[in-house]
Amino acid sequence: MKSNTGDPWYVHAALYFVIAILSVILIKIAIIDPKNAVEQEKFWRTESRLRMNNIKAAEILWQTKFGNYTDNLENLITFIKTDNFVDSVMNAFDSLTMRSANPFRPLSNGEFVAESLIHSPKTFQEYVLQIDTSTTIDTTINRRGKVIAIDTTIVLGTRYYLEDLDGYGTVGDLNNDALKNTSSWE
How would residue 74 be classed by pLDDT, with cut points 50, 70 and 90? Predict the structure, then answer.
């Protein structure tokens, strides 16, 4: 049987089938894939910022206990997992509101995992964590102008800087006390 144009029916059926397949592919490429990519990017951004907030909370606890900040994520994680001070803060309650005083936020999966603080969720690169170093030189001179002593004081960790190499933000600043513990997305 031939169609009105003289072509066999199976040619038209094959063309309709190809058009249907190409339509499905176009919908997938133009609508579904970009939506999935946007959702995945939003998940990575949210997860990374949750981890960075938890690192900030751990740095604040470290500074409270030791008087300075650290630039070693492994030591920070060991501190979170094993230190009694951190455990007491995590299990404490606010006496006015009766809410938990735990400074660590649960991650997207619903729980806090200390080992997750090392890596960014998108590319699994380590977060960049740096502390400042300041050197103070004090010279003692007698009345005749002769140098008696030179005292050098090195202070580590009065400020820290945390950065996600995937571009989801930073926390703190090495040069400005006003930006201490400040997140770039807040």
Answer: very high
Spacing of C-alpha 18 from chain mean position: 46
Per-residue pLDDT tens digits for 130-161: 998 877 788 888 888 888 888 887 777 789 99
Q: With CA atoms as reference, report the closest residue to 162 among 44, 59, 62.
A: 59
pLDDT at res. 170:
92
* pTM of this prediction exceeds 0.90: no
Q: Please give the Cα distance from 58 to 182 (Å, whole number).
A: 14
* Reduced 3-state DSSP string for the chain: CECCCCCEHHHHHHHHHHHHHHHHHHHHHHHHHHHHHHHHHHHHHHHHHHHHHHHHHHHHHHHHHHCCCCCCHHHHHHHHHHCHHHHHHHCCECCCCCCECCCCCCCCCCCCCHHHHCECCCCCCECEEEEEEEEEEEEEECCCCCEEEEEEEEEEEEEEEEECCCCCCEEECCCCHHHCCCECCC
Residue ranges per structural domain of the chain: 9-179
**pLDDT tens profile 108-125:** 888 888 898 899 999 999
Compute CA 106 distance to the chain's CA centroid, rounded to the nearest angstrom.
Answer: 13
Question: In angstroms, how far apart are the furthest CA atoms of the chain?
Answer: 120
